[in-house]
Amino acid sequence: MADPKPKTPVQAPGSMGDALYRALFETTPDGVLVVDDDGTYVEVNESYCRMLKGRREELIGRPFSDFIPPDLLEISRNAFTELKASSPTGREFPLLALDGTRVPLEWRSRGNILPGLHLCVARDIGERRRTEMELRQAKEAAEAASRAKDQFLATLSHELRTPLTPVLVLTSSLTSDESLPPELRRPLDLIRRNVELEARLIDDLLDLTRITRGKLDLRLEVTDVRKVIEHTLEICCEREVADGRLRVVTELAPEDHRLWADPSRLTQVLWNLLNNAVKFTPVGGTVTVRSWREGERLVVQVADTGVGIDPEALPHVFDAFEQGRTRSPRRTGGLGLGLAISKAIAGMHGGTLTAASGGRGQGATFTLSMPSSLPKRTGEIPIVQASPPPNPKSKIQNLRILLVEDHADTAEAMVDLLALLGHRITTAASVAEALAAAGTSDGFDLVVSDLGLPDGSGLDLMRELSGRHGLRGIALSGYGMEEDVRQSLEAGFLKHLTKPVSLPALEASLQEVARKGGS
């Protein structure tokens, strides 16, 4: 660095203005410096000295360029040219402190404040940069954690769904046998209904991202709420009533109970309400289910004589993860999501769900109010009508199906079910086996494939089978997120079924895909 040349500090007139000038000059937290036409320091304040870790006498008389990092000399020359042109400038570039460290600074300048003198104000933005970096890192960490959580929940959902598939397939095939005795049909129907509901609960309880974003799907159809209530009572209360542990009273209005609703979601709401009532009602208590009409709305109420809800907990009863706060005196297991999900489902239907309790030991009452018909305004509520069942007379049978499934129990159950439907099945447990089977056979009408296979992805398999052999396909997977469905369709699958799949859904999909092929 060049030896500093002596400079006379800028002098202001000896007056009140001089005192004010000096006070502002020395007390501002920003660095203030005055340079001449050559870019030499004429005056600096204490804040600027602290930024460059030196004293006034070490800076005054030295060239501004002595403190510019070598890689930024061109930037500084441009800034200084603008400064001398009397143009206010705003730039960010660092200087080198006397100890050699870089100090990130934000600059504001004004040229020719006096003949041949130019003013610069420097603000240390190191803390701001550190804060921005910390916020960026925190955001990236949060996004990574969210992705990891979503992946974990999707994987957990897949692992829980997969073993349910053979159970549902077998019960579906058994109950479809017309020779089955009634005493066996009823318990098998009960198993089937509960497996289907369990699959829906897994989807809701584990897919927290979809819950918090309000992206629960509705599959709306004309729904008899009376039948939904009776079915849910059978699931939730049959054993307790048979054992004499609880008394269940139903007071259902004689009027029409039909709504435009998603029956599975409505079952889920009532299941949550009844399950809570049973859980928190002691032996000898009563659970009462009522329904009535209020104008254009149907109201369903579930009341119990259980432990009640403390007044301070009542406002939080529909908050997610509030299991430990919402009931007294005891706590029970659970994620505390059931009521939050139920309220969301009610809202999606244009309804409301409220809770009331007299306090500890006074039981609780939950009231579901639903409109008889949903709003029809575009975009307000997604309306998806149930697919009509296939016409038995127009069913396509004797399809040649390549079944790709590495879960042995599921594969065995699916073979039996597909054979029962009148189709010919060839099985494969991997991508390699499937490609070999497709290459050596006389041809298949379609492929039904899992996505997670031991030697690759069902997505890649579908691309190969479609490209080489023109095969149409149905994806059958425990992964059922929107992204999973999108990827399946992009890979060439015509349908994406989420495990466990019911017999009607499987049969309808087979017929739909077969017809698309012109078979």
Folded structure, characterized:
With 519 residues, the protein is α/β, with parallel strands linked by helices. Helix content is 43%, strand content 21%. It has 17 helices and 21 strands. The protein has a 5-stranded antiparallel sheet with strand order 2-1-7-6-3. It is elongated. The relative contact order is 0.08. Residues 324-335 and 374-393 have low confidence and may be disordered.
Class of the largest domain, according to the CATH hierarchy? Alpha Beta
Q: Choose one word for the global shape.
A: elongated
Question: N-to-C terminal Cα separation, in Å?
Answer: 87 Å
Q: What gyration radius follows from the Cα positions, in whole Å?
A: 36 Å
Describe the strand arrangement of the main beta sheet, using strand numbers: 2-1-7-6-3
Mean pLDDT: 81
Helix content: 40-55%
How many structural domains?
Answer: 3
Strand content: 15-25%
Kindly report the name of the CATH homologous superfamily of the largest domain. Histidine kinase-like ATPase, C-terminal domain
Annotated CATH topology of the largest domain: Heat Shock Protein 90
Q: Which stretches are low in confidence, meaning pLDDT under 50 for 5 or more residues running?
A: 324-335, 374-393
Q: List how many beta strands DSSP finds.
A: 21
Computed structural class: alpha/beta
- Largest sheet, described in full? 5 strands, antiparallel
